Amino acid sequence: MRIRWPVNRCSYFLFLTIFVVGISCGAAPEPDKTIYSKTSNKELKEKTLGLVKNIRALVDSYNKKDRELLAEYDKKNRPEVRIDEWKAAREQWLKESNALSDSSIRTYRDSYWSDAILLRNELSRRLPKNLQQTNLAPIFQNPTNVLGIQVIADHLELIAKSLPDS
Questions:
Q1: What is the C-alpha separation between 137 and 146, in angstroms, rounded?
Q2: In angstroms, how far is CA 87 from the centroid of its own chain?
Q3: Where are the domains of the chain?
Q4: Which of 80, 141, 145, 146 has the fewest beta carbons under 10 Å from its own?
Q5: Taking Cα atoms as reference points, which of 133, 143, 115 lies closest to residue 34?
Q6: Tens digit of pLDDT for each residue in 8-53?
Q7: d(Cα 154, Cα 62) in Å, to the nearest integer?
């Protein structure tokens, strides 16, 4: 047994009319608009430089902890230490260093990744074509290590400072 829904031209016309009115009244989102689209250049600069400061704090924290791990490893890396102990210490250091790097990248992704991409896109949209760098887009999308995160911070700072205040 088939159920038939009563549909006629009037229903289609009514649906089409409502759809067209909804779009013309601004119910559909505008293309290429983000939360920063209506932000002034000065506010956009401030927001970007604040993000850069936070990203650099994350990178500095990573670097400090990594130096501490390396110092601990260097204490264990002496000529009188047996080779098997040295290999175990080296493996432990590599494991801890990788965990620290993964943690830093995870923190970046959770806290700063989306804002960095949105701010970069908005700044690039407002800058003249000759100042835009599209070759860094993959790094913004998927930083593989803390050096990539540092490159993101440096690039954001550069393009934010290139933006006029008006």
A1: 16
A2: 36
A3: 54-166
A4: 80
A5: 115
A6: 665 666 556 666 655 555 554 555 677 888 889 999 999 999 999 9
A7: 16
